[in-house]
Specification:
With 170 residues, the protein is an alpha/beta fold. The chain folds into three domains: 5-40; 43-139, Outer membrane lipoprotein wza fold like; 142-170. The chain has four helices and eight strands; from the N terminus they run ββαβββαββαβα. It has helices at residues 20-40, 79-85, 115-121, 142-168; strands at 5-10, 13-18, 43-45, 56-63, 69-74, 98-104, 107-113, 135-138. The protein has a six-stranded mixed beta sheet, with helices on one face.
């Protein structure tokens, strides 16, 4: 038995208590490992099973998709396929204002894509094909922005109310 461990036997039940220092050390270690995982971010590798030697390109997906992150996808992947790999847009996504950012001949180029229009009747040829290093940003809708603002205002009101009750109203 470890020195930091106490064992009690009572009515056939064995209870072990590990000292707080070991538990705290494990908790801190697991928290640091979790934080490192968060800092690394999400990276996904997408490849077709039948393709052995296919060219993969690195693209980024940010914003209101189920799984934002960096993806390695097959060359000639289009925007809709990438969004599908990322789990699709969330409820709060504005698919009528998706931004595709790429560098062409050393200059940054931003293209706004109305995916709703393309899906409702546009031509498949109009769907942008991704290039290496592209970044796709799916913005949130106005409802999301308003609900976030209301949430922040309500939290500030709570803090102001607590301050008033404890410090001003005496």
């Amino acid at each position: 038995m470890l020195d930091s461990e106490e064992t009690h036997r009572k009515e056939g039940v064995r209870v072990q208590r590990v000292s707080a220092s070991i538990g705290l050390a494990l908790l801190l270690w697991s928290g640091l490992a979790w934080a490192q995982e968060l800092q690394r971010g999400a990276q996904y590798y997408i490849s077709r099973k039948e393709a052995i030697d296919e060219l993969l390109i690195r693209v980024n997906v940010w914003g209101y998709v189920a799984k934002p992150g960096q993806y390695l996808v097959p060359d000639n992947t289009d925007l809709i396929s990438l969004l599908s790999y990322a789990g699709g847009p969330t409820e709060d996504a504005r698919i009528d204002a998706i931004r595709l950012i790429r560098t062409v001949e050393g200059k940054r180029q931003v293209t706004e894509v109305d995916l709703r229009e393309l899906l409702e009747g546009g031509s498949l040829e109009e769907i942008p094909v991704l290039m290496p290093g592209d970044t796709v940003i799916v913005p949130g809708n106005l409802y999301r922005l308003i609900s976030r603002a209301v949430s922040i205002v309500s939290q500030l009101a709570i803090v102001a109310n607590v301050y008033y009750l404890f410090f001003v109203r005496r």
